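TL;DR need structure tokens for one chain.
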Amino acid sequence: MSVLVEASGVSKQYKHSSNHEEWAIKNVNFQLHAGQVMGLLGHNGAGKSTLIHSLLGAQYYQGDIKIMGMEPLSKRAEVMKSLAYISDGSHLPNWMTVQQILKYTSGVNPSFKIGNAKRLLADTKVTLKSKVGALSKGMKVQLHLAIILSTDVRILVLDEPTLGLDLMYRDVFYRQLLHWFQQSEKALIIASHEVDEIESLLTDVLILKNGQVVLSEPMSDLKHKYAVIDVANEYSAQIEQALNPIYSRPHLAHTEWVIESNKLAHFEPILAKRDAVLSDIFLAFQQGVTQ
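>> reply
TL;DR here they are.
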């Protein structure tokens, strides 16, 4: 599969009023191929938004970014023909009707297929006569998604796209998104705090902590790399000494430990074990001791 997004040594500094410079992101590296869905995870302030804005060519940065072989700062108009962005907030004009927005988009974007957008909206409660300002948050997200999925976009960046949406809107959103993704060679980046919600969609994950990459791996490797054991608190000292866990989650009388699976070979018969899910791994690399 072709490389659609490539970041090499991407960094961004912000200067504060005291002339103190702080790294928002530092030395971020990754490749995203057609057919990949990358989860971009991190705590608030970890650098997710800074990285996204750099990929969009919306700010200056250090390092190299290529979007379909093009640099997003100097070739932003060309890049944005193939890359789109949806955030948790609507940027659509509230005074326009849905029909007017579709007609306007058709006039300014030759690749926009208005018939396809109307078919996508037919599966929702968004009507063509509705004004954007009268739509609920979920309906605005569906309208934005229908517009973008009806263009020739190949790379879609989602930043908390379902924040505040109920389960029904989330289900429709992801069904339409996956249908679009499976049509041809496309790539997705999903930044979200809803780790459990997006886990099944991802092929890869990149976790940021304080602006630096602490984990970047295919999901298929993570499934076998980490495990969670549940042990009574009286054995905590022995677990720490023998297995060097990367994270612990204490409960009333027992503790869950995130462990590298290869360290459990001699203990499996006596320990209650399960495979680590992405939320376990995310917490381990945010709050625990990274190896």
